[in-house]
Amino acid sequence: MARPLLPLSPHRTYVPLARWCHALALVCGLLWPITDPEFNAPVFAETGQASPASHPLLKQAKRLIDAGQGEEAITTLRRFLATSPKPDLLDDTYLLFGAALHSTKQYPDALKYLRQLETEFPESEVAERGKLMQARVHAGMGNLDLALPILTGLRNLSKDDSTKREALQLSGDLYAQKKDATHAIQAWLDEVTLGTEDQAEDVRIRIRDLASQTSDKKALDQIRGTFPRSFPGDIASLRLIDLYISRGEEHQAIRQIQQFLVNFPTHPQTAKTSELLASLQAKLQSNQFFIAAVLPLSGKLASFAGEALSGIQLAVEANRERAGNASVGLIVKDFESNSASFLDDFSDLLNTDRPLAVIGPLLSKNLPVMAELAERAHIPLITPTATLPNVRRLGSYVFSTALTNELQAKRIATYAIKEQGFRRFCILHPDTAYGRELAKLFAQEVQQREGEVIAIESYKEGEADVSAQLKRMKAEDLKRYGLSVPVDQTKLTGKLTKLDKKIFYTPGFDAIFIPGRAADAGLITAQLNFHDMKVPFLGANGWNSPDFARTDDSSIDGAVFVDGFFVDSPLPTVQDFVARYKKRFQTNPTIFAIQGYDAAKLVLDAVRKGAASGEAVQEQLLNQPDLSTLTGPAAFGPDGTLNRPLFLIQIKRGKFQQVN
Is 138 exposed, middle or buried (0-12, 13-18, 19+ CB in 10 A)? Predict the structure, then answer.
C-alpha cells in the first residue's frame, strides 16, 4: 500500500505484505480483457479473503463492481470518502473509483481518480493496476494510441508476471482493434511464456481465431515470414491459400500450398492441402488460355484494385458460362511496384505463364517499365484505371480502358456546343492537377469548336467563399458581352429605398464549367446564383455523389456532368451487369469495376473471334472499329485510349437522370 501522508497512530500495526495481498484480492480481475469493440464489458473480480486492514465500505464497493452494479459502487465510494478515511486507504479507493466509473462509461471521471492514484501514490502496490485501468479507460474512449504506450511501459518495466501478462493481453486486443494482426499476435505470443499451460492454450486459440479471420494479405505474409515453420505461420499460410482461391488467384494458391507442404510436412492439414493442390493444378491445366491481372491488392490501393479485379473476374466467369467458348483462366498477381522483385516477378509472368494479355497496372507511374517488358514479350498491356494521356507512346502493345480527362472534356464540350448550342463559357476549377488539366482541356475543346472562353478562375478545394473569383469573372464578362443595367427603384415603388441604385446583371456567357468535387460544386453553384450568374452548370465525374444530387439547394437543378459509368442507367447491358455484379459481390459496381470488366471482355471477345496469342489479341484491339463495351460500340484511338460512349447525367429534383 501507499505510505500514509500523515503518521499512523502508534498503536496501529502496519503489515505491508498483508496489505499487498488485500490489494491484489481487491482489484484482481477488475481489468478483465476487452472482448467487444466498445470496451464496455462488465468489470469482474474474485472475492478473495478480506484483509484485517480493509474497510467494510471498500469491500462493499468491490462486491458491487463484481456484480455489475457500478452506479451503486460509486455511491458507496462517495459515502466512504465523506468519512475522511485514513490516507493509507486512499489508493485502493481511487482504484475502485476508476473501475466503477469505467464500468459505467464515465471515462473522464475515471481518468481523474486514476491520475490521482498515479500522482499521490506513485509507489503504491496498486499503482500498476491503476495504469492498467488507465489503459482500459483510454481504450473505452476510443483513444487506442494513448492506451498502447501505457501498456508498453508496463510490459517493459513491471516486475510482476501477472501484470505483464495482462498488459500483453490487452495490447494484443488493442492491436487487433487497430487491424494490426502482426503486432497483436506478437504481443499474445509473448503472453504465452508468462502463464500456465491452460492460459497458454487460451492464447493460442485467440491467435488462431485472429489469423483465420484476417483478410489483410500483407499482415498474413508478415506472420508467415516471421514464423515460417511454426505456429502461427501455419495458420497464416492456410488463410492465404483461402484468400487466393476466393480471389481466383489459383497460381498464387498453388505456390502457397507447395511452400506450406515443404514447411509443414506433418501438419494435420497436409493431406487435405495436398488434395487441394492436385485439384487446382488440374483446373489450371484444363484452361486453354490465360488472362493475367497485375494489381496492388494489398496496401493503400487495395480497395480500388479489388474493384477492378471484381470486374475482371465477372467477365471471365461469364465467358466460362457460355457454351462453346474457349476456356480462359485468370492469373491474378498482387504486385507492389516498389518491391525489389517486381520486375523479375513481372518478367517471369510474361515469359513463363504467357498470358494472352495483362490487365494492369492501377497507376500511371507504373506503366512505362511494364509497357517496355510487355512490348518485348509481344503481350498486350491494358490498364483499367491509369489516366496517363497517350499511352501508345510507351509501345504498340499498350492500351487503356480508363476514363481519361481528355475523354471527359471532349464529351462535355460536345454536349454543350453541338447539342445545346452554347458558344461562350466561363471556367471555375479547383487548383489541383485534376482541376487544372480538365480546365485546360475543356478550353481547348471549346476553341476547336469555334466557341469562346470568357474567363478562367481557380479556387482551393474546401474554400467556402469564392465571391472574389466570381466578381473578377463578372468584370471580365462585362468587358465583352455581359450587361449591367441600373434600376431606379423609385419608378417601381414610388419612394426611395436602399435599393434605389441596384444593378441588374445579365451574363454574356452561356454556361460555366466547374470540374471539381461535388462538395465544392454545391457551395459554388449557390454563390453563382446569388451573384446573378444564373447560367447552366457543367461538371465532370467528381460530381457523381448521391449526396450532391440530394442537396436542398435548388441552384444545382438542371446541372449536367459527364462520367464513365452510371449505376442507374436504363441501358440493358448496364442493368444486366449491375444485377450480376450485385449478386456476385453483394455491392454496387464502381467505375473501376466497369473498366476492369471491359478490359477483360475485349480480350475474351478477341479469343472468341480466333485470337490465340498476344500478337493476335493486339491486332484485333488495334483494328476493330466496333469493339463491344458495356456502354456501346467503341474503338481504341491512336493514343491507345478506348473511346467508349460516356454518360451525361443531369440533376433533377434531387436525383440523377441519364441525358443521353
Answer: buried
